[in-house]
Design brief:
Structural class: alpha/beta
Distance between the termini: 15 Å
Order of helices and strands: EHEHEHEHEHEHEHEHH
Radius of gyration: 17 Å
Strand order of the largest sheet: 1-2-3-4-5-6-7-8
Number of helices: 9
Number of strands: 8
Length: about 260
């Protein structure tokens, strides 16, 4: 069984055909999917999908792109919504300095609010970071000193040094279909050496469809293609990789039944 540790089932590209998307995913051997929230307006829909589909779980969070529009979403609001039995993680959150769709200080404040919610709930953090390695790591370290929390760097594309630093803090590293791209040589080198006990796989669908599905909307079924490529890259069987990443997911997202 494979687990898609990060997908957006309620986004355009999947929501229009969600029932069939889920059936194709199950047929491809995907046993669980984590449906990620990125803005408050979609929390109810993300949660409704997880309530309706027993192999889908949910998160609550504010993407860094959305930080400017959500100054009212504080730790207390995140904690309140995370009490639902189908909510198993906080995020995605983090920092994105590539697009700078939100003010950087606002992104950082939101990031810290999410971490505080993780501490209070005991749920893991889902981190997005792009062109912001130094500040992401600084905040993660600062907050870890204030009290322990767990989490994952999702859709990992950062440096190998960042991966090492994140794992030192106890974080997991999640690999998406980007690893299959011909241009992703640095990512492939890092992914090949990551400890199997710290590895997750994801699609980030409907984005970033792996080879051989480039140009199509991504969907959770395609995590099987990423897993096959990654297993070959690492010299492991797909079965070994699937078993390890599924066990890692359950260890991190321990609220999953």
């Amino acid at each position: 069984m494979l687990i898609d540790s990060h997908c957006h089932l309620n986004y355009k590209g999947l929501i229009e055909d969600q029932a069939n998307v889920l059936e194709r995913s199950r047929a491809a051997g995907v046993g669980l999917m984590l449906n990620i929230a990125t803005r408050e307006s979609e929390w109810d829909a993300v949660l409704d999908t997880a309530v309706r589909e027993q192999d889908v779980w949910a998160t609550v969070g504010i993407h860094p792109h959305e930080a400017d529009e959500h100054p009212h979403v504080d730790t207390a609001k995140l904690v309140e919504r995370a009490a639902h039995p189908r909510v198993v993680g906080i995020g995605e959150t983090g920092l994105d300095y590539y697009y700078d769709h939100s003010d950087r200080e606002r992104q950082q404040k939101s990031f810290r609010s999410h971490i505080a919610a993780c501490r209070e709930t005991g749920l893991p953090l889902i981190v997005h970071t792009r062109d912001a390695e130094d500040d992401t790591l600084r905040i993660m370290r600062d907050e870890m000193e204030a009290g322990p929390y767990s989490g994952v760097i999702h859709c990992f594309t950062a440096s190998g040094a960042f991966a090492d630093a994140a794992m030192e803090l106890g974080f997991y590293i999640s690999i998406s279909g980007i690893v299959t791209f011909k241009s992703a040589k640095d990512l492939q080198e890092t992914a090949a050496r990551l400890p199997i006990g710290r590895l997750l796989v994801e699609t980030d669908s409907p984005f970033l469809a792996p080879v051989p599905h480039r140009g199509k909307p991504c969907e959770p079924a395609y995590v099987a293609d990423t897993a096959k490529f990654l297993a070959n890259l690492r010299g492991e069987s797909v079965e070994e990789l699937a078993a390890a990443t599924s066990a890692n997911f359950r260890a991190l997202f321990s609220k999953v039944a």
